[in-house]
Amino acid sequence: MNMAAEEKKSDGAVPTVPAIETEPLITARNVDVFYADKQALNGITLDIPANKVTSLIGPSGCGKTTFLRCINRMNDLIDICRVEGEIKIGGQDIYDPKVDVVSLRAQVGMVFQKPNPFPKSIFENVAYGPRIHHLVKSKGELKDVVERSLSKAGLLEEVHDRLDDPGTGLSGGQQQRLCIARAIAVEPKVILMDEPCSALDPIATARIEELIDELRENYTIVIVTHSMQQAARVSQQTAFFHMGNLVEAGKTEQIFTTPQDPRTESYITGRIG
Amino acid sequence: MQHINITNTRGPRPLEQALKITMVACSVIAIIITIGIVLSLAFEAYRFFQLVSLQDFLFGTKWSPQTAIRSDQVGAEGSFGAIPLITGTLLISAIAMATATPLGLASAIYLAEYASPTTRNVVKPLLEILAGIPTVVYGFFAALTVAPMIRWTGTEIGLEVASESALAAGLVMGIMIVPLISSLSDDVINAVPQSLRDASLGLGATKSETIRRVVLLSAFPGIAGSLLLATSRAIGETMIVVMAAGMAANLTANPLQAVTTITVQIVALLTGDQEFESAKTLSAFALGLLLFTITLVLNVVAQKIVNHFSEQYD
Ligand SMILES: Nc1ncnc2c1ncn2[C@@H]1O[C@H](COP(=O)(O)OP(=O)(O)OP(=O)(O)O)[C@@H](O)[C@H]1O
Ligand SMILES: [Mg+2]
Fold this sequence. Notes:
The complex is a heterodimer of chains A (273) and B (314).
Chain A: H1 2-11, E1 24-35, E2 38-49, E3 53-57, H2 64-71, E4 81-89, E5 92-93, H3 101-107, E6 108-111, H4 122-132, H5 139-152, H6 156-159, H7 172-184, E7 190-194, H8 202-215, E8 220-224, H9 228-234, E9 237-242, E10 245-251, H10 252-257, H11 262-268
Parallel strand pairs in A: 3-8, 3-9, 6-7, 7-8
Antiparallel strand pairs in A: 1-2, 1-4, 4-5, 9-10
Chain B: H1 14-51, H2 54-59, E1 63-64, E2 79-80, H3 83-114, H4 117-132, H5 135-156, H6 166-191, H7 194-202, H8 207-236, H9 239-244, H10 262-270, H11 279-312
Antiparallel strand pairs in B: 1-2
Helix pairs in contact in B: 1-11, 3-6, 3-8, 4-6, 5-6, 6-8, 7-8, 8-11, 10-11
Bound molecules: adenosine-5'-triphosphate and magnesium ion.
Residues 35, 40, 58, 60-66, 78, 80 of chain A line the site of adenosine-5'-triphosphate.
């Protein structure tokens, strides 16, 4: 079923030029976020195009993680956190009371800053999502899904002969790719990545960036990063946050070459951060 | 060239030495006392096994240590089969664990995962008060409240219940060890990194799926450790069973009958007047050694399990 979807998507020509003009998959309108009385985001309005990589950049504490966690409602887990405004995915308001958060999170996967594999085998880590969502009917099908996900995450080759070893025994970069495999095994539409490479060396980072570029074909990706180079390398759209405000968003190329706002310019040239 | 002064001009540092010697001495004393207790236990038990064979003790099914009034009396030697005591101990401990495990684990999970900070701050100390109740209080609670209640209920539904049933002692002992399990497990569950919960919830797992499949799994070594610790506590518990379990060394698996335990028999053997050379008195040491061995094995196994899992998933 996944193969079919994949084929269908790859049939349509993959745009090589960033075309932000395409219909946005995710639309945020006037999103305010409060932690208790403290406001962390002020009226964020941002469109996130489908099958593109959008990077969120900005100095530490400016609210990138907070915004990312609004998109799959992980902020619900923080008691003191309150989200106002509107976020729609595919036209549906995700903060609507009728929305099932569990299904939302199955559609909007997340990869965290620190690799966090479960204390289970490599196989079971990836099988976790398909199992809880009953995506497979047989053992064989499960094995297929696991291997396909590992292969998409570029990890299968390295681990195919030790799928039963603990996932926690892998190297940091491998663990992060395992977490990506675990996220795509659920076949989400969107993958949110919060500084996925911050704990990795340059080689593992390059591997993951390559992977993100491949994943773009089938998924809509939002990535938080502190590395300007990374944002420039992997993303087609960039959004610059500063002290809880979205200062500027646009094509990555344009943000990095001709930023409109002086704050963006100082940040990307390294004067604030 | 710069000169750095590293020559020791003060001589040895006496305070450092004194502290070190004191600490070594303290640990040596503790170790010697432990060894001494085990040795004296072993020595007295050895004397017992010169009177009664090890085989009769370990595999005999009849426990009735008699003191002969006249040496030619029938059954003057009594029988020292420990099986009924072992099964009695295990039966009561099993009942206790069957009571305490679900209660303790459920409260731990509730406290760690569901309770609001306010509730937690009230409930946790309350549970810990349970741990502070002297066992003798539990003992008379078992003997005077729970046992008659079980007996009454049993009679109402047509069951024959001994006035000192294993069930009563086991249930109350279970309540007693609930805080032990809940408090240790709560700590262990709390120590599971939030990042693992986030990972699971982020994949669209529900809260209970996350708890069952990730949190409890990660906390398993610690939980297993706390359960085994609770088991050895149950096996070694004395006061409740002395007051509520009775003296009858029945070999039975029926929780409604009276059974006795190793600890109860040790108390019975050593209270009142006694003749130190008799097999009856000496058998207490053999029982003590047996109890010690059981709990030791249990602790070693617990350690093995915990190590196995923490090695596998670190
Ligand atoms: N759980 C929380 N409780 C209270 N305040 C929080 C919480 N999480 C974030 N904040 C606050 O919200 C603001 C934005 O934080 P956020 O984590 O979104 O920043 P960030 O841009 O991701 O920073 P970094 O680059 O350091 O990860 C900060 O001022 C932070 O102190
Ligand atoms: Mg962050």
